[in-house]
Amino acid sequence: MPTEKNNKRLYLILGRILIVAALAAAVVLSGKFSGFVNVRGLFFVLAGSVTLALASFSIHEIGAAFRHAAGVPGEPAAIRISMAFWEAAARNAWMSGVMGTILNFIVALCTMSGGIADVATRMAASFLATVYGMVLAVICAVPAWKLGEVPSLKPAGNVPYTEAEHKPAGAGSLRFENVLGYLLFLLVVSWMVFKPVLGIAHLNFSPFDWIIHWPSLLVVLGGTIALVLFVGSAGAGRMLTPAFAVTGLIGSLMGFIQVLLGLASKVIGTVGAGITFVIASCFMAMLGMMLVGAPWEDRLVKTGRMDNPSALSRAAVYIFPLLALIFLVVALILVITPIKKG
After folding, report:
1. Residue 287 in contact with residue 271, Cβ under 8 Å?
2. What is the mean pLDDT of each run of 10 residues along the chain (342 residues)?
């Protein structure tokens, strides 16, 4: 009887989701909100969220998280991991949305054509990916809130992870699906950047100018390694995400200093190099947080070595992407504003 009741509840939830999805599809297809449709951005947010979930959690843990969100009871340790999954899913959706905006922005810069209005429209459309990521993040946050608030589902205290309670998970080491998640995410990023520029004979910039920008790479990657070494191995996992955010912010500020110097001297090349520095720093920091910092901390939580992601990490994964969006808006203004030579 309990199993039948749980299955019925799960079907009801799935039915509600399908109804909402059908209504949303009807509104979009009606054409009234066609300006808010970015298929590539939506695909990247969905694919990025799924692949990042695979990078941190096993198939068994993901399945258990959906069952617990539907109200199926479980052991305290399993419930705790499910809460961690839904919190990570909300974080991944938010960061995937911002990353999608950055990648769309890079593509728009590389394939600029037409007048200022055309350039501004294409770059502004890149911000739709963030909207999709925010909506998906809220949807994923609801099960985390539910599991944390319902007394019958709330785990009692810090119950350490044990193989007996969550046997198939194997949280202490990388599993096949984790490696597959990393590979698929990198594949989706490559598709997002390089597919739109393939076959175009004359590009304004090469995508590599924005993805592999050596000054940004040295600041973000080198600075992160230095901070982690300074903290030591004991706190390395907890510091990775904030370290990427801090070094990404430093790189972005260095880029804006270069932009200001270029504006003062009215040298367009210096302004362009500064904008490249800013965007590449944001991209590199976000990539490090998504592929290294956040998954590492997820594994610390799963194995019971941390109760929850640290407050500093939570601030980093939500505040730095917001700052990156602000930096992109400033970069957009700089791109579409003509500079008169003195």
Report:
1. no
2. 57 61 60 64 92 91 88 81 91 94 86 66 80 90 76 45 38 75 93 78 73 89 88 75 94 92 83 90 94 89 78 90 92 70 47
Dist. CA 98–CA 46, nearest whole Å: 13
Closest CA to 83 of 163, 158, 15: 158
* Residue type at position 67: R
Place of tokens 């096993």: 58
Q: State the number of CA atoms in the 13 A half-sphere of 45 facing the CB.
A: 28
User: What is the C-alpha to C-alpha distance for residues 313 and 316, in angstroms, rounded to an integer?
Assistant: 5
Helices (H) and strands (E) in the chain, counts: 14, 0
CB atoms within 10 A of CB 314: 16
- Are the C-beta atoms of 314 and 243 separated by less than 8 Å? no
Report how far apart, in Å, the C-alpha atoms of 157 and of each of 77, 145, 238, 305 are.
10, 16, 21, 14
Is this structure's pTM higher than 0.90? Answer: no
Length of the chain: 342
Specify whether the CB–CB gap between 204 and 122 falls below 8 A: no
**Residues 308, 88: contact at Cβ < 8 Å?**
no
| 279, two tokens | 């965007």
Burial 215-238 (b: 16+ CB within 10 A, else e): bbeebbbebbeebbeebeeeeebb
Centre a 10 Å sphere on the Cβ of residue 10 and count the other Cβ atoms it contains: 16
| Lookup: tokens for 260 | 């200001």
Asked whether the beta carbons of 301 and 84 are under 8 A apart, the reply is yes
C-alpha 300/C-alpha 85 separation (Å) is: 13
> Whose CA is closest to 109, among 244, 246, 296, 272?
272
> Degrees (nearest 5) of the Cα angle 284, 288, 290?
115
Rg (CA), the chain: 22
